[in-house]
From TrEMBL:
This is DedA family protein. Residues 36-163 form the VTT domain. It is a multi-pass membrane protein. Keywords: Cell membrane, Membrane, Transmembrane, Transmembrane helix. InterPro entries: DedA-like, VTT_dom. The chain crosses the membrane at residues 12-36, 56-80, 143-166, 178-196. Belongs to the DedA family. Its main location: membrane. It is found in: Cell membrane.
Length: 214
């Protein structure tokens, strides 16, 4: 395990970029992303880049990941617009069920524009919101503006918090290493748990009685 963490710690900025951009796109675009730990990934990316003193890379990653998050949500929007939300709910699902889908739909119905902005900070609503907005035929220009504002507040905040937070800890090498290990472990554990939960949910039949509309 120590060797594995050492390998992750010495992973180059390019590897960090590939992992972050791939995961953020999937989380923002597809239902599988509902189970991915996007928040901890962005923070961990900042911590890893800090170990390489890659400040420029951290800022550049924040910008590019922000764009990818917006593009991913656009994909999710058009998926929802084309398929609706009926296929999302599963009978007996722990996460993908009619209750959670209704809660997400009610959240968007009450808050409208600002719900899409705030959804970036709400893990499972972050993935469902674009699909529900698309199914409800939310104006694409309003949706794009809202999801862009949300991404601006979400992506750079977490990446740069990880980067500069780790930088402060450089005076205490053992604490910096501990922060790196915890961040990566949380990300790996969250991803493994997410894959397992996704497989469990997808094995359940579709609840065809559910359709969220506005």
């Amino acid at each position: 395990m120590a060797h594995a963490f050492a390998s992750l710690e010495t992973a180059g900025p390019v590897a960090v970029w590939v992992i972050v951009l791939s995961f953020i796109f999937v989380e923002c675009a597809f239902i599988f992303g509902l189970f991915l730990p996007g928040d901890s990934l962005l923070f961990a990316a900042g911590v890893v880049l800090a170990t390489h003193n890659s400040e420029l890379s951290a800022w550049a990653l924040s910008l590019v990941a922000l764009i990818v998050a917006v593009v991913g949500n656009q994909v999710g929007y058009f998926i929802g617009r084309g398929t609706g939300t009926r296929v999302l709910a599963r009978k007996g699902g722990k996460v993908l069920n009619r209750q959670n889908l209704k809660r997400a739909g009610d959240f968007l119905d009450r808050r409208g524009f600002w719900a899409v902005v705030l959804a970036r900070w709400l893990p499972w609503i972050r993935t469902l919101a674009p699909m529900i907005a698309g199914a409800a035929r939310m104006d694409i220009r309003r949706f794009t503006l809202a999801t862009t504002l949300g991404a601006i507040a979400w992506v750079p905040t977490l990446v740069l918090a990880g980067y500069y937070g780790a930088g402060i800890l450089q005076q205490l090498p053992w604490l910096e290493t501990a922060a790196l290990v915890v961040s990566i472990a949380f990300f790996l554990g969250g991803t493994g748990w997410g894959i397992w939960r996704y497989r469990q949910e997808m094995q359940k039949p579709i609840d065809e009685t559910v359709e969220v509309a506005s």
